Input
Amino acid sequence: MTKQESSLETLWLSGNEALALGAKESSVKVASGYPGTPSTEILENLTKYDEVYTEWAPNEKVGLEVAIGASFAGARALATMKHVGLNVAADPLFTASYTGIRGGLVIIVADDPTMHSSQNEQDSRNYAFAAKLPMLEPSDPAEAKEFIKIAYDLSEEFDTPVLLKSCTRVAHVKGIVASGATTTSRVEVGIEKSPAKFVMLPGNARQRRVVVAERQLQLSAFAETFAENKIEWGDRKRGFVTAGTSYLYVKEAFPEASVLKLGMVNPLPIALIKELADGVDELIIVEELDPFLETQIKAMGISCRGKELLPAIGEFNTAVVRQAISGEPGAAEFAPVELVPRPPNMCAGCPHRGLFYNLNRLKVFVSGDIGCYTLGYLPPLSAMDSCVCMGASIGVAHGMAKALGDEGKGKVVAVIGDSTFIHSGLNSLINTVYNKDYSTVILLDNRITAMTGHQPNPASGSTLMGEPANSIDFEQLCRAVGVKHVQTVNPHDIEATYKILKEEIGRDEPSVIITRFPCILIPSEKKRTKYPFHTDTDKCTGCTACLRLGCPAIQWQPMSEEEAVAQGRKKTQKGVARIDKATCVGCGQCLPLCKFEAIVKGEEK
Amino acid sequence: MESSGNILFCGVGGQGILLASEITAHALLATGMDAKKSEVHGMAQRGGSVEAHLRYGKKVFSPLIEPGTADLLLAFEIMEALRYLPYLNKNSKVIVNTQRILPPAVATGKVLYPGNILEELADRGLTVVPVDGYEIAKNAGNAKAANVALVGALSSLMPIPEETFVDVIKQRVPARFLDVNLTVFQEGRKVGLAV
Output
């Protein structure tokens, strides 16, 4: 039981905590996945239950394959990922649809409409359709816990992996959740060979393809009577077909209306949808992102409206749904005030900052990747020129080198974090060596998967369950794949980092620079310097050299000409830089930047 | 107490907004209300603008507050109070931590930090409760407890007994920080009661 309990039976849980509890109540034995907002806390919370084995896999594809293996061995298994992670795991997903399962197999995929913390806002329901798999979609934490339990029963009843779609407004919403009884698997854990079912040679796959088609028919029939697909009859003027969080917004905006709430969004219950359509004057489909339901409902020959009213971009809320459908103006009284934006920033003491400061100086094309260091794009560091997906940096840099030829020599680098490199960068590094280019790969090794909240990875030296583990030797690994030039540097050392960058970027061959320093937010690293740096403002000339780091601890204090003169400064001085004692951790990156010795170590006198 | 309400928490990543919203949520739950709270995790937490929506009532569907319908705004950073103005209406009460945290463009000298924020709020007819959370917390012995000063001010505006908040804080704050947090809560509450 978790600490979040308010009483024995009623808990206050986030969607991710509820999914973990639901997995535990479903007797899940093995769970694997890769961190990704907003899915990360599912596995983290699952570690609270000793009876469940949980792990971080190097990427989502491996995570799903682990879950498939556990299922083949007869255990209930779980794979978790964010929406873009399902792209990585799509290969095993599509064929696991053919093999079916032994122990119940559930894949939780968490979408991020509006891209709070993502590079795109794809709609994962399309995967359920394409892979011919059932998908459940809860609307809140209480349903999330119930739906995962239903998902395990469905998985075993229909011999299929089941997708469970979460999203930011389920995963990171807290609500009241009731704990419940434990359900168990229909199968025993053990080896049971069924090669014709599990070996997807074409001959077997052709037979399984037919089984999948039959299963789809069975699931479609099941959808008609599934208790979580239900019509709530209200007035007959408007009828809504909706699912997930969109249902919540419909209930608030149109409490009197008739609503078909779909707990299962694939496959669809045709008769149930027709029943609602026949009983109301007008049918409206309310769904975030793609017209997934609408397109299929229209193909059923049912007249309805959806995306002609509602946006296909971004997440909904009650106001969006109400205004789009009724045309009523919202309740907003005050217009937004134009304000200085407050984007996220690398932390004070972040080791990545030292590298990006130098990359900015070198004016190279920086092929970027996914992690905290993507913030190196923002001013004043402004040192990232592309970022596509997990692991893309090295392949993109190679492609640029091949296109540019000698023209691009010394002008293209890739930056990739330790966890991202392990996720999907290593293959590309092998390609860079094998197909010979001159790009420099910079491996930002901060010993942790930082962006998603400090999950250990195969370089961290520990596992999700807190056991000590092997830590990858990146230097040896890079040499083993054929990189001849591998150098390691502490990125807090600005000048040493600059020197190594100059050396390696100019080479005719591939090289790897490992910038190694632990993330400042790792609890064991949170040893703040007791007396960090301060500025001797008498010496500060206001040259702004230190501000080019963009460190949140260094703050500009503007001054007028009169103030400058009164303080005995040049009248052209526009201000001074001050180091905020409460924010500075004493990393020392700013020290060599000040040519006037105004940055001083230790307590302010 | 009021049958339903919307409380919006906003500030800068790292200010303890999640703990403050958790204390408030648990105080509401103790009264037998339904509640939902929506948070944003991930990239924004690295010093970006962050928000948490807390809604309560007999039965809560949506976890998100509609623009124009927040009854209370707890702004943990003064400029952030202004950023979330579209969520407010003339009857909204705004509890503002007067602390400034400079966004990158201000810290690097590109633009100035806006002035007269409290006046801008008051000019729109809003009830404004300024709280010097940093000073209160520092005086109590731990500047990091500033978030609880705002919860103290909030408690004075909620029809929930003071003891309920105190009990929740006792349950949720580690023992070694408890005394400081209880002092800070009381100081914040005094500020709220004085308005």
Remarks:
- Chain B has one domain: 5-194.
- The mean pLDDT of chain B is 94.
